[in-house]
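COURSE: Structural Biology Practicum
ASSIGNMENT: Worksheet 4, Part C
STUDENT ID: 0417
INSTRUCTIONS: Below are two proteins. For each, the amino acid sequence is given first, followed by its structure token string. Answer the questions at the end about the second protein only.

PROTEIN I
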Amino acid sequence: MRAKTARHTAALSAALAGCVAMLPANAAEAGDDRGQGSKQADVGAVAGIAVGALAAGPAGAVVGAGVGALLGDRYHRQAQSTAVLRQDLAASEAERARLAESVARLDSSLAEERAHGEQLDARLAHTDELGLDVSFRTDDDSVTAQAMSPLLKLGALVASLPQAQVLVAGYADPRGPVAYNDALSLRRAECVAAVLGAAGVARERIIIEAHGKSASAADDGDLDAYALERRVTVRVQLPSSTQVARRE
């Protein structure tokens, strides 16, 4: 009986030694690729050997080693997949947080623009005047560089008010023939209208008038008064207005 037990023990020891020799020399960490050893696979193999040996002797130890290694490796792969999913989830949460922050900034910008638009509408609704005058040199119809910037700004404002129209009226001082001054005042008004168009105002929203020297009230020889009459007036007509707004 003792001899049989000794033989059984010797066979078990040999099986254990063989199975242990089959295990990887160095266990891999959690990031190892499939097919390489892992700590979980090694632990499963050793546990399988022990359980198999106790249950069915040396043959059971060999089978238990294989089953234990397979189960341990499967657990190792599941742990890897879980880690990758956690990383992806963390990245998704971070991206969602960034998107939420961007949406919040956009909402804030839209609210500011809406408030600015409401302030502008209130300002326009309570004003009786919106426009400017453009002065010209004697016998000249070109818009000066000094007048260009305010004209462009006014044009941009009118372009943002789809229902508004612009009245552009040209004038001349009393010197020279009537027909010549009528044509000169028209050219001046058309040059101003062209600048407004460059700022975005549609041509059909611009009303052009030419008054020549018909509105002149300057005394003969009054050069300062003449300078005031060489002009183009630009007036914005708002939707609620029944007449062109006039400057005080």
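PROTEIN II
(use this one for the questions)
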Amino acid sequence: MRYGVLLLPTDPWQEAVARVRHLEEIGYPTLWTYDHLSWRRYRAKPWFAAIPWLTGVAAATSRIRLGTMVASPNFRHPVTLAKEAMTLDHVSAGRFTLGLGAGGTGFDATVFGDEPLSPGARAARLAEFVEVLDALLRQPSTSHRGRHYTVDEAMMLPGCVQRPRLPLAVAAGGPKTLGLVARNADAWITVAGPADQPGLPLPEQVDRLAAECASIGRDPATIDRILLIGEPAERPLASVAAFSDFAGRHAELGFDEIVFHDPRPDDPVWTDDPRIVDAIAAELF
């Protein structure tokens, strides 16, 4: 089991760099950040762009793996995102995972004046988004004509450091998106949150992914499984024992990585003692 930290891209740059270097020093293998233009209760607070932020982090570190949690089609096009991701793969010397999702209905969905899409329409758009990104990141030149995207001989040179391309981690909680994970993803991202959150319950998600893999002849063990601790009723960061129990229960479901939000004194949800981050590293690594 791996343990990763999600750091919001909102703090002054030197503070963020110091925090990331500390997380790397104490042994955390992965660092994730949200990819939004603005986000929920941070709408009126500083918020930096994920790809440039991660590029700076890559230059300031040497071992920790970096990822988006998650980029979406709400405000991105696959050609420009692929070029940025390929570049970040080089800057990080092959330490980047591109996390992708369908996008929600918040600020990112309406910033260009568009109406938010239905869940089904977002899932369909994500499928094409991921398929085009997959092609772009694997080959030097790509053309595509689909319902949502047209690509005319997009050049992607020199290609990714990681081969055959950098890993794609797709966020999924329902049947359509879990099928997309089975077809196109190297990793699956899902969220441990309230019981009434959208999507299937976690055990049903695990079973559905296995069924989708079986339907296309793919071994589900070839898909890395990443669980983000959202805003669940329990408090896994209340103590090392609570976190260890939470991680153990989800390891039994087949998850390979648990990601938690770095506690923040100014946040009304992630209010656990920040010292828990060091304690987890000291006792569980």
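ANSWER KEY EXCERPT:
Q1: The mean pLDDT is 95.
Q2: The chain has one domain: 2-284.
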